[in-house]
Task: inverse folding
């Protein structure tokens, strides 16, 4: 997809995340332009992120310099900079603050996949155990070391970051991680949370990988939630 199309799809993602309660005054998302050394990120000032337009996307290079856009990049733009600069699979990055994911980190509940959907995230999701914003280059590098090659990370008392090769994948991971956190928290309230086996997790991962990009869970989940925003 060319640059204008990716920017428009990022704006659609902003509307979906706003509608689903992931984005409010805080949180930000970005998309890397293939073959370029820059990305677009939603601006940092509090505003109606369900009504963003193209002027609300800030163009930032891999060194964190603002190139274009109305307003300023988010204060934690380093989360996007280090991922887009360092990982080829970082086509889209989402940073939001979902309730159950944060609750997991403060309650000391470690992520384990207990549903088929959760298995898409892999056997575990790493944690960044510093309860603060990630703003400095040093903090960005520490964060990058913690997330490694994982598709998602929990930020202690703070939120999550998800990394997708596409915008659709990043949304699916964000939605699924919060849904999985809700199941885990409720299961712990009931006193038992039986994880899937490693074989079951790998079977799910293999299935998702085998599906055509326009027919797999990323595309189906995106289509459903994109349709909901039209109402």
Result:
């Amino acid at each position: 997809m060319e640059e204008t199309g990716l920017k428009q799809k990022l704006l659609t993602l902003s509307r979906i995340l706003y509608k689903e309660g992931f984005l409010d005054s805080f949180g930000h998302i970005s998309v890397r332009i293939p073959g370029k050394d820059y990305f677009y990120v939603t601006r940092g000032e509090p505003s109606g992120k369900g009504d963003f337009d193209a002027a609300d996307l800030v163009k930032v290079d891999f060194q964190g310099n603002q190139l274009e856009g109305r307003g300023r990049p988010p204060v934690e733009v380093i989360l996007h900079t280090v991922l887009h600069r360092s990982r080829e699979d970082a086509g889209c990055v989402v940073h939001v603050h979902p309730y159950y994911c944060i609750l997991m980190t403060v309650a000391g509940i470690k992520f384990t996949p207990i549903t088929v959907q959760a298995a898409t995230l892999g056997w575990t999701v790493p944690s960044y155990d510093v309860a603060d914003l990630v703003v400095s280059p040093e903090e960005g590098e520490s964060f990058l070391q913690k997330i490694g090659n994982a598709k998602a990370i929990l930020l202690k008392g703070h939120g999550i970051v998800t990394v997708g090769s596409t915008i659709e994948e990043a949304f699916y991971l964000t939605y699924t991680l919060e849904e999985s956190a809700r199941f885990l928290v409720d299961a712990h309230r009931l006193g038992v949370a039986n994880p899937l086996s490693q074989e079951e997790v790998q079977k799910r991962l293999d299935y998702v990988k085998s599906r055509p990009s326009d027919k797999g869970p990323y595309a189906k989940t995106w289509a459903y939630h994109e349709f909901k925003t039209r109402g």
Observations:
- Residues 3-225 form a domain with the L-fuculose-1-phosphate Aldolase fold (CATH 3.40.225.10).
- The mean pLDDT is 95.
- Strands lie at 28-32, 38-42, 57-61, 66-68, 92-96, 127-128, 152-155, 159-164.
